[in-house]
Design a protein that fits this description.
It comes from Kitasatospora setae (strain ATCC 33774 / DSM 43861 / JCM 3304 / KCC A-0304 / NBRC 14216 / KM-6054) (Streptomyces setae). This protein is of the alpha/beta class and 354 residues long. It has helices spanning 5-15, 19-30, 135-148, 170-186, 203-210, 227-230, 233-236, 240-252, 268-278, 296-299, 309-323, and strands at 40-47, 55-60, 68-70, 74-77, 80-90, 96-99, 104-107, 159-163, 192-197, 215-222, 256-263, 287-290, 343-344, 347-348.
């Protein structure tokens, strides 16, 4: 995908894209070779070209064919240092973690072992813990998290995200979301309750979600072709049309709407043809994620051509054309696998990146 720093600079010039974004796309797509004995690690990265802008990444390691190499101290491309690494951690399951400083709290509050999984998901590769917070523990857990983070309570928190694919049915998800909202209130948080899932689509379910207060639904679309081969059943059974309808119904209820999509699973033409129908029902920038293959088996699901940086930059440009006039823009702190970090359609992106 990228052979060297010279190749990186040549591609960036040809496509009129900053070198950092080109590098990060290739890094997420390729993973890295590493002496670290874990399939995935999370860490902070300071690129040599932008040392004042620390980034957070979660990366596939052990990819012996990658042009990138990562150890405890630095990231190299073709043997040349391009960034400094610190804060390395095993990418295991944690009950809660912060994004955007301490403005957004993400909860993995339901047991992940209930999830049958999609082929691109790393969870089945990990010997990770399997947390589940009982309703009676939620308020106490949130209070302890605030105290451990040096906060009196969660009043300053703008968003609490429930990020799990482990709800088998809509009513189970709604029950848990109601419990989370109650726990938020007990800790002074009146912010947005954000849910990533494919199970919340029915009219009655969306009514119930809207009644929970400020609500944000991220529908886990992921891909449009080969859905039954790639996705678990609860996702695969939804058609693109049904997803658009669900997001439109959520938008009508003044629910904030967007979706997740994995760049690299679909050919470009059907991807763009389907994505254009999502634009009118999307109220915040979607979570477009560069496909990370964690082992050779997962490489099989890459769409032909997506092993080249030119494919990814073509897809990036097509998505920019779809969303440029909406005013919606990506933020790296929301999505560490984004095709955009520092620029979007030639426009400099500002704001937090951790």
């Amino acid at each position: 995908m990228l052979e060297s720093v010279a190749h990186l600079e040549k591609v960036a010039k040809q496509w009129n894209v900053n070198t950092e974004d080109v590098l990060l796309i290739a890094l997420n797509a390729c993973g890295a070779r590493s002496p670290l004995a874990k399939p995935r690690m999370r860490f902070r990265l300071r690129l040599d070209s932008r040392p004042a802008d620390p980034l957070f990444l979660i990366l596939s390691l052990g990819r012996q064919d990658s042009p990138f190499e990562l150890d405890e101290h630095e990231l190299r491309l073709g043997g040349v240092k391009v960034g400094e690494v610190d804060g390395i951690e095993d990418d295991d399951a944690v009950l809660g973690y912060w994004r955007n400083g301490k403005k957004m709290l993400t909860l993995n509050s339901n047991a992940r072992s209930q999830c049958t999984g999609c082929v691109f998901c790393p969870n089945t590769l990990e010997d990770a813990s399997d947390p589940k917070i009982k309703a009676l523990d939620l308020a106490g857990y949130l209070g302890a998290l605030a105290a451990n983070s040096g906060m009196k309570d969660l009043t300053p928190v703008e968003t609490v995200t429930v990020c799990t694919g482990c709800f088998l049915h809509e009513h189970l998800a709604l029950e848990h979301l109601a419990e989370v909202r109650t726990a938020m209130g007990a800790n002074g948080c009146t912010g947005t309750l954000h849910f990533l899932s494919s199970v919340l689509t029915a009219e009655a379910g969306l009514d119930a979600a809207a009644d929970l207060g400020p609500f944000h639904l991220t529908l886990t679309a992921e891909c449009f072709t080969e859905r039954r081969q790639i996705l678990k059943e609860s996702k695969a059974k939804l058609t693109p049309g049904q997803m658009v309808t669900a997001l439109g119904a959520a938008k009508d209820r003044r629910i904030t709407t967007d979706f997740t999509y994995i760049v690299g699973l679909d050919p470009i033409e059907p991807a763009v043809e389907n994505l254009k129908h999502f634009v009118p029902v999307t109220t915040t920038f979607p979570r477009f994620q560069t496909y990370q293959a964690h082992n050779p088996f997962m490489d099989v699901y890459r769409t032909p051509g997506s092993d080249t940086i030119e494919w990814h930059l073509t897809m990036r440009r097509n998505i920019e054309e779809l969303f440029v006039d909406t005013g919606l823009r990506p933020a790296w702190w929301q999505n560490y696998r984004s095709p955009w970090c520092f620029t979007f359609a030639g426009e400099e992106l500002t704001g937090a990146r951790i």
